[in-house]
Amino acid sequence: MKKVRKYFKRTYKHYMAVFITLIFIACFYMFPHCLGRFIESVRDLGLSVAYYFCELLGFEDVISPTVNNLPKIPYFSKWFNSSVLPNAPIPENFNEFKQKISAFWELVIDKENLSAYGSALLNVLLVLSKVLMIVMPFIMMAIMLFRRYLKTENNDYDKDSRALIIWKRFTKKVYTPIKVWIKGYIDFLKGNSVYLKAWLCLWLFYLNGISIVIEVLAFYIYFIISFDFAHIYVQVYKLFIDLWSVITFLPVWAWIVVGIAILLWWRKKIGYLRLRHCEMKNRGFINSLPIVLMVCGTMGKKKTTAITDMALSEEAILRDKAFEKILENDLKFPNFPWINLENEIKRAMEYGEVYNLSTIRRWVQKKKRRWGYYKEREKLFNYDAERYGFTFDDKLKTVTVWDVIEVYAQLYFIYVIQSSLIISNYSVRTDFTLSDIGNFPVWNTDFFKRDSRYLDNYSRHAHILDFDALRLGKKMLAENPKKDSFEFGVVVITEVGKERGNSIENQEKKKKDDCANQKNDLFNVWLKMVRHSATVDNYPFVKVITDEQRPESWGADARDLCEIVHIKESEEPRLLMPFFTLSELLYDFTFGRFTNMYYEYRYARSDNRLLMHLIKGVVSRFHNYYTRIYNTFGCCELKVQVESGTQDGVMQDKKYYLMHKKIYSKRFATDCFSEYYTEKTLRSKIGINAMREYETERATFEELKTQNSYFITDLVKTEENDR
Amino acid sequence: MKTFKRLVTVLLWVLAAVAVGYLVFTFKRL
What we know:
The complex is a heterodimer of chains A (723) and B (30).
Chain A: H1 2-26, H2 34-56, H3 94-108, H4 111-151, H5 162-191, H6 193-206, H7 209-226, H8 232-249, H9 252-287, E1 292-296, H10 303-330, H11 338-350, H12 357-374, H13 385-388, E2 391-393, E3 398-400, H14 401-416, E4 422-424, E5 429-430, E6 433-435, E7 442-444, H15 455-458, E8 460-461, E9 463-464, E10 489-493, H16 496-500, H17 523-534, E11 535-536, E12 539-540, E13 542-548, H18 556-559, E14 563-570, E15 574-575, H19 581-604, H20 610-633, E16 634-644, E17 652-659, H21 660-663, H22 674-682, H23 701-705, H24 710-722
Parallel strand pairs in A: 1-13, 1-14, 4-9, 4-10, 10-13
Antiparallel strand pairs in A: 2-3, 5-8, 6-7, 11-12, 14-16, 15-16, 16-17
Chain B: H1 2-29
């Protein structure tokens, strides 16, 4: 018995799904014409295909297509009740249709028709007002009850009222189990999608969906050979006949629900399209800037946010560029077995033989040398050079297959490397995912459809920037093992002026100093030469993105290399998903009122009442929905001005888009240097409460002296000297 | 201003719905 129960527990969901399928199959009796229409549409398609080939091969008038015939309803009248014939709300032929159209427009401007519509509208309003009349007393009662709550004050911390206890018991015993079971069953159906697919097919069949698709195909094949414009209207009429059974099957309220569901799905689709469009505009903007750029703006203008966003986009640009160039080089020798080369590169990377562009170039040269001894095909990655050629001429120069292999290998290395390409002086989270089933891997560089629940599973972080790797001169650590490591990637430096300083700040520092400083580390030389280490196939796989409050904070020698992006204005966030206005209005209306009400309640009482529990539950669900929509589809537009690093005063107005889902999804910490201050304040023995306060509105002389201010100290000294 | 803009948008949608409703109503009476 126990075994039977266990078996039933394991399989009852399947039995239920089969039972539902049987019910759906039995629904066939509600749609007696669908089978006939399906057979008819298959016949039409077959004859259209036959007609197409006969006409194409010159056998004219052998086949007479039936796609233009009207459906012969009722079918199978012997077995089914065919008294209810489907009909279409449009006339059978085009002339009648034209007459109806002109009659329709006459009726549209008819006074009597307009007043009839007015009275129909009033009837609807009457029904709505009746509903309101029924609902209003309940709302009034709730408000009165709530006011009564506020009159009695208490400190009954976290004590549930009797009604709330009953409600919680009810939800625990009834609501929650039902909800959990339904969710589980939906997950089961998603896991066993064969049931969902079978149900979809059945209903598409009943509602003539399959017949419509076959008929469209049949007419398309017939039309492209006959150009029979005269029968297009017949097809429209037939379509209406087929659709009418669907339209009349569901009641109006069900159509409203279906309409709302379609609208919700469609607006999200538009939202995602707009997000991707803005991202493409951002990439266009970044591509128009030089290798070194500097973002400037006063505090709170979203400088670090903007450079992080640019770095993320630039990483995607570099991956895409490597991919594009891999294809270009692939096509130079279309019969080269690139997979053999790729597999050997992967192996060399695993063994640590290849870890940067220089080692990969050395590796290819080694392979070339080995091939050079006997010129065997196996040593050329099994490429048949004798048959397919050894050189490629692009009418600018002639390159050998080894030249292309060297370039391809470097591009493949840049493309396939799994860690982030960002190297920064603060942490940035990246979440590009590489799909690889052992052939050519594919990067997913989409920012907007990431599941935030599994964020940590697929995230990586930017590499820690070791400034010694960017210094060609003196290093801070002379024997730093990472001093020569930088080759390509996206270098991001926030607050670059504080790191590098300007000529005034650096005037005390000397080139001859023993320690590394801004004058002897040759960082600026590195900046000027940066593209040399990172260029593959004439494209520099490098970008240096920096930010600072004022351009002048960074020395002119380096700044002159950049273009400066001034953030002029950061606009209010707006939503890229359409048709959300009504929800926003409702949200503003409910949330503002709830906040006032909630804190009045919190001030007066500490116990839990059923009414507050219900209101808070509804408002929190609405608030979370609103927040999630804004977090997914919200976008903040930055108005920027681009100026040359020489600061010639010529400004170009541009826009940059910060999409919430991309940049605020745990990407970086705005307080990226906060740990320094944590260490500093941990050393302190006092907090703000212990700081001395002024005794009156006017500070005493003693109080002024405790400020340790340069100004006050100077004044005190002067006063003492005068004495 | 924001609320006013939203109100106007919703009002325009309601008007559009009434207009579409009128066309459907006329079509049904044809």
